[in-house]
Amino acid sequence: MTSTSVLVTGGAGFIGSNLLHLLAEVRPDWHLVNFDALTYAGNLENLGAVEGRPNYTFVKGDVAKPEDVERAFDACPAGSRILVMHLAAESHVDRSIQSGQPFVMTNVVGTQVMLDVARARGAERFLHVSTDEVYGSLGAEGFFLETTPYDPSSPYSASKAGSDLLVRAAHRTHGFDVVVTNCSNNYGPYQFPEKLIPLMIANAHEDKALPVYGDGMNVRDWLYVRDHCEALLVALEKGRSGETYNIGGNNEYPNIAIVKLILETLGKPESLIQYVKDRPGHDRRYAIDATKIKNELGWEPRFRFEQALPLTIEWYLANSEWLGRVRSGAYRDYYATQYGG
User: Fold this and answer.
1) What positions does the domain NAD(P)-binding occupy (predicted)?
2) Residues 185, 222: Cα–Cα separation, whole Å
3) Which of 180, 185, 190, 306 is the most exposed place for a label (fewest CB within 10 A)?
4) Domain coordinates of the chain in residue numbers?
5) Would you call 133 a catalytic residue per the annotation?
6) Which of 68, 90, 132, 221 is catalytic?
7) pLDDT tens profile 139-188
8) What are the tens digits of pLDDT across the range 84-141?
9) Looking at domain 4-187+224-251+281-304, does it have CATH number 2.40.320.10?
């Protein structure tokens, strides 16, 4: 029987590391290749429980460099069927406003390089993980469908829209087996603490100001990362080639409501909230209609927000040492100590 290798790009990031934990748990016979550039968002400490496995390999490299991508594919055992789960991306909107060039290089050029090498290496399937931000902003009503026209607002979302289109083009031009997923805002363990929920948890715990953009009424659909990873595995194994699937959590909340829930849970005063100038092009509302993936693939989120937010808060409080090392930058020494360089 042919063995299976899964090449996960961005596997040291927030969603990628949670995905590798899931795959190690539910697909223990698969060989897992983690391909990550270890930028600021990549943290191998996230994978301590996975690193000792005999069928896990880490490859340090850049998705935009063909020679690095070739090395990642070389790590897949000879003769195994190869599945690609492409998560590597520059993803922080504020950073893209400061400079869009790294986002174009990683998200657009990197995706094309991955597609080219994956096709040449005979990859069986290419799952491309994207975002609902490619659709732009919603008004007070309505939902993003897979057929919603793209209307990105930031350099980040524009670069992800470009990468989505390149993946679709690979299917139409070359007949390459691809699946695209567009998810809503994730939260959960191992998220880099410049994102809303971990930032607010950390600041509230330390009695620091909680910066909230504008009036705080920007609405997002919140998706627990474990639910997202389970959806990605379903899309990888059961999704129809060439199709796009929206993945949402069915949990719409304004940012200010999230912040107040965190304060309430931690027993902290709302006086810690500090409203700050809104960022340019800040989308007002995102909301996903995930009917397609439910009807076609049988997936729907298992975790309710009122259940998973307390779990997330508990995780960050229990892992204060991890959080401190990320915030101080000390986590970046882990690669050198574990891999000798």
Assistant:
1) 7-309
2) 5
3) 306
4) 4-187+224-251+281-304
5) yes
6) 132
7) 888 999 999 999 999 899 999 999 999 999 999 999 999 999 999 999 99
8) 999 999 877 778 788 889 999 999 999 999 999 999 999 999 999 999 999 999 988 8
9) no
